[in-house]
Amino acid sequence: MIENLNPQEAWDLQQQNPKAVLIDVRTKMEHLFVGHPPSAIHIPWKESLDWQINSYFVEQTRLVIEDLNTPILLLCRSGHRSLEAAVALENAGYSHLFNIVDGFEGSLDSHNQRGNLNGWRFLGLPWQQS
After folding, report:
1. Rounded CA separation 75/53 (Å)
2. Cα dihedral across residues 89, 91, 94, 99: positive or negative
3. Torsion of CA 78, 10, 124, 15, to 10 degrees
4. Which residue in 13, 18, 26, 130 has its CB near the most CB atoms, within 10 A?
5. Per-residue model confidence (pLDDT) at position 124
6. Contact 102, 118 (CB under 8 A)
7. Are 87 and 81 within 8 A, CB to CB?
8. Sorting pLDDT into bands at 50, 70 and 90, what band is 49?
9. Would residue 63 be called left, alpha or beta, if left means φ above 0 and alpha means ψ between -120 and 50 degrees?
10. CA angle, corner 11, sides to 32 and 95, nearest 5?
11. Are the C-beta atoms of 77 and 30 separated by less than 8 Å?
12. Strands 72-75 and 41-42
């Protein structure tokens, strides 16, 4: 089962459970230039240019997380790609999956801009840029 958490709940879970792993499923460019949580492991779900699904996503995740019972939090820009990635991991047998709704940048506001309503960065949770 996939549980939805807001960014603050995801951060709290990470602090309470040191076995929890945060995977940033955004593109390489998003991860590097927009920023990311310091503890995030980057495994893209889709890459830019053609936005094709990374056919090695589950395999790349298994290289990092062998235990199917490990709590895995998934983060993208706004919570949509991370949910798709969570479904793929659920289908592969992972059992403790958490989609971070609102993602890193949050929802679009009335001016079609992100970062003004919600999301990891908006809440002031730890993040860095490369």
Report:
1. 16
2. positive
3. -160
4. 26
5. 96
6. yes
7. no
8. confident
9. alpha
10. 95
11. yes
12. unpaired
* The two structure tokens encoding residue 17: 């459970």
CB 1 within 8 A of CB 71: no
CATH topology assigned to domain 2-100: Oxidized Rhodanese; domain 1 (3.40.250)
**DSSP codes, 8-41:** HHHHHHHHH-TT-EEEE-S-HHIIIII-B-TT-E
Question: Which strands sit side by side in the sheet containing 41-42, from one edge to the other?
Answer: 2-5, 97-100, 72-75, 21-24, 41-42
What pLDDT, on a 0 to 100 scale, did the predictor assign at position 1? 87
Tokens found for residue 122: 């908006």
- Helix H or strand E encompassing 85: helix 81-91
DSSP, res 46: B
- pTM over the 0.85 mark: yes
Domain boundaries, the chain: 2-100
Q: Which two tokens stand for residue 23?
A: 């995977």
- Buried/exposed 38-53: b ≥16 CB within 10 Å, e otherwise: eebbbbbbbeeeeeee
